[in-house]
Amino acid sequence: MDKVEAESAASPYITATFRIRRFNPEIAAEAVWEDFTIEIDPKERVLDALHKIKWDVDGTLTFRRSCAHGICGSDAMRINGRNRLACKTLIKDLSPEKPISVEPIKGLTVLKDLVVDMDPFFQAYRDVMPFLITSGNEPTRERLQSAADRERFDDTTKCILCAACTSSCPVFWNDGQYFGPAAIVNAHRFIFDSRDEAGEQRLEILNDRDGVWRCRTTFNCTDACPRGIEVTKAIQEVKRALITRRF
Amino acid sequence: MTTSDIKLTGSSSEISPENPAPVIEAPRARTAKTPKATRGNFEMYGWLFMRLSGIVLVVLVIGHLLIQLVLDGGVSKVSFAFVAGRWASPFWQAWDLIMLWLAMLHGANGLRTVINDYAERDNTRFWLKMLLYAATIFTVLLGTLVIFTFDPNIR
């Protein structure tokens, strides 16, 4: 008995409560908070806690995750009121003595629990033509570019399309018609690429009523980005490109 | 954690032909009803106007407040005669006219932005903006009329 107590005293496990926003349209029209109290090592991530709940406590808990290492961008969710990737958020960084709230990202329709409909998000992404557009014959070798030209848009190549930025944007929350930070970041990636020739078309798309001019520079997107992209700066650079193009 | 602790919630067994699952509301995707993409630079000029008029307004408004409320006896000196004296000069007429137009258009454009951001239904948005435009035009026209037709001998 003493041995067991000594072991538990040395145990890294703590008791943490996860307050998860549950929604199942087949059960109820309203979403509800449900608390799950589990034993977990605080050095684990929120995604590990969600796994533990799904695998050991309640198999109906639904969430997206794929690579679980911060690259695929599947598990963006609102944890303690901030958009983050569950797989990059350590429990010890969330003051686990208090309940940790986990919600779906805002501004997109919730399908079940933490899963949202990403279609409007990817529609905005597709609308900015996120692919290389060139004219003339295809070169037989690589399209060469100087290190400085590559550096120009390096920051915006890091986007993993997790929607943490777009779903933290209060303008996007309103009617979802705003292109959103993620689409603008991915347009920026090609607008400032020296190899691409459709920058003008992308600028014209973002000059739309629901384009960059709806940005209020609240910096929510920059704060939310799990990749540390300076999202607001990228949006401002697109605005500046639009203005200097005209004058 | 043993299997007896597993709490089974959210079973779909309650769903039957008599008790179908509720329809999930369609997301706010771009549909045929979505407004078409706009051409033209109106939003860009609006954005630029806010910045430029803001800079000018800082000078105009702070100057106005200093003259009216701080310098030379403060607010107690403001009277009909004081206003009449200032508007006798084309310089102060122009100052007040520019301040009126810039402040009204700056404020109206700001409120237009707020309405666009906060109104959720198209109808609400439309009528709030119409109200805003009507109030703006009325105030700008009335103010302009007063500045140009001001009669110091009205008494």
TrEMBL record, chain B:
Region of interest (Disordered), residue spans: 1-35
Membrane-spanning segments: 48-71, 91-111, 131-150
Biased composition (Polar residues): 1-16
A GO molecular-function annotation: metal ion binding
Highest taxon listed in the record's lineage: Bacteria
GO cellular component, one term: membrane
Keywords: Heme, Iron, Membrane, Metal-binding, Transmembrane, Transmembrane helix
Pfam families the UniProt entry points to: Sdh_cyt (PF01127)
Localization (cell): Membrane
Official protein name in the record: Succinate dehydrogenase hydrophobic membrane anchor subunit
Species annotation: Streptomyces coryli
